[in-house]
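Cast an eye over this sequence plus tokens and explain the fold to me:
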Amino acid sequence: MATARDLMHPGCTCVKSDGTVAEAARLMAELDVGALPICGAEDDKIKGVVTDRDIVVRVVAVGRDPETFTVDRLPQGRLILADANEDADITIAKMKEHQVHRVPVIDEGRLVGIIALADIAQRMPESVTGELVDAISA
């Protein structure tokens, strides 16, 4: 049976919670990703996730300065995480229930990777991917 570790994209770069939105955007462009985990400036523990959509809708579109607005000021909902050793079906169920496209993966409290919808599409049967897309889009 597959685990979250089997699905995840290993090695995940964080943006520090005191980093600016502009820094996060530049890092996303450099890494060619649409989201970054937010890690504490002091403790490296995951605090949330910033997406390219957050940057556009919650900063740029409302006239905030991305060079001074820090990522820790972005509203964060409940953080949904996957344990690296949990069954992949549990992880996918979390994504469906909370309608999220990405889930950070932790192992013993440390961030070890991230699972995106694209990872599911590449590693799971089409039916699983289809059900997940339906659930997220509802």
Q: What stands out?
A: Helices lie at 4-7, 21-31, 52-60, 88-98, 117-123, 126-137. The chain has one domain: 4-137. The domain at 4-137 is CATH 3.10.580.10 (CBS-domain). The longest strand covers residues 110-116.
